[in-house]
Task: structure prediction
Amino acid sequence: MTAKCPNYEKCPIYNGVLQGKTLTAKAYVQFFCAADAYPTCKRYMVKEATGVCPPNILPNSVLSVDEIIAEYNLKRN
Ligand code: SF4
Result:
């Protein structure tokens, strides 16, 4: 499967909170990282907005981008 998200190589999520959770990780890759939907990934959106993304944010986080930015004291670009 070819990843479409430009962050895939360096995205820490698969070596972090999803390490060992093979099926869950595979589902996220299918739905976000290797799909046209990657721009809807919350990790992608937060990184676009601030340049970084906390390692434990999931692609389908229920938090909005603004809520994640506020909760983690991030600064918009
Ligand atoms: S989790 Fe999100 S930011 Fe990370 S590689 Fe997948 S689509 Fe990109």
